[in-house]
Design a protein that fits this description.
The structure holds 2 protein chains of 2 kinds.
Chain A: H1 6-14, H2 17-21, H3 26-61, E1 70-74, E2 82-87, E3 94-99, E4 105-109, E5 120-122, E6 127-130, E7 135-138, E8 144-146, E9 155-161, E10 164-171
Antiparallel strand pairs in A: 1-10, 2-3, 3-4, 4-9, 5-6, 6-7, 7-8, 9-10
Chain B: H1 2-37, H2 44-74
Helix pairs in contact in B: 1-2
The chains are: A alpha+beta, B mainly alpha.
């Protein structure tokens, strides 16, 4: 039985002087190499489980962020089936406030969950639309309905005091 | 030379099993990263447990390799 071509290797080695001077024990070589590889992979496996553990600990320690209450817009300034852009929780986070055809106010992060393009409101279709890759999100819960996005848009929780709408938090 | 030859075949099989387990662990790590960023913290512990089980399998196979080595050296 010619396992890994080793008998053949020996025959080939026999006809060359330098191979006779420096013979290679292929069986032993394969044996050691594969054994070392098993050790190396098991070490890698240990690192991977540690990385997973670090993430589990980070998840345990993570606290829901405390969000500031921030003014978004005047309710009277947002007609039915229209939208207003604002930024929350920081000035770097674009969001969109939408009043649907039922008059209900909802707000979402404007960052598409696919590749972070800005979604826009399409009043004629009653959806939030991502122009980069044609992703569609429905307005009531921000869930993806078509295109590449698979996760819903982060929702901005709202409070209304008189005519003023406040953003109070983010629900991922 | 019979023992190393059997060892080579054995370690090839072990390599396939261990390699598959490591690839599965990589997949679990990716899923854990995704869960962490999506703030779905409940998924992290089961994912870590799964990864640990695969590591335990790998460690058991490595112990077998050490035992095999010892037997080879004794002969």
């Amino acid at each position: 039985m010619n396992d890994h071509g080793c008998d053949e290797c020996t025959k080939k080695n026999a006809d060359k002087q330098w191979k006779r001077d420096f013979p290679i024990e292929w069986e032993k070589d394969h044996y050691v190499t594969r054994r070392e590889m098993v050790k190396f992979l098991t070490l890698g496996s240990a690192f991977l489980v540690m990385a997973n553990g670090v993430m589990a600990i980070a998840g345990r320690l993570a606290k829901p962020g405390a969000f500031q209450r921030r003014t978004v817009a005047l309710a009277s300034a947002v007609p039915v089936n229209s939208s207003v852009l604002f930024r929350y929780p920081t000035d770097e986070d674009p969001c969109i406030l939408v009043r649907g055809t039922d008059g209900q106010l909802v707000a979402y992060s404007q960052v598409c969950t696919h590749l972070s393009c800005a979604v826009v409101h399409r009043p004629e279709e009653g959806v939030l639309f991502c122009p980069c890759h044609h992703g569609y999100f429905e307005i009531v819960e921000g869930r993806p309905t078509a295109g590449p996005p698979t996760r819903r848009l982060p929702r901005i929780t709202l409070e209304q005091s008189g005519d003023v709408i406040f953003a109070t938090g983010v629900e991922v | 030379m019979a023992e190393p030859r059997r060892g080579t075949t054995l370690f090839t099989a072990l390599l396939i099993v261990v390699g598959t387990a490591v690839v599965m662990q990589l997949w679990l790590l990716t899923a854990a990263m995704d869960a962490l960023l999506a703030q779905e913290y409940g998924l992290l512990l089961p994912l870590t447990l799964g990864s640990f089980l695969l590591f335990a399998l790998n460690a058991a196979l490595l112990k077998f390799v050490f035992d095999f080595d010892r037997r080879v050296e004794q002969r």
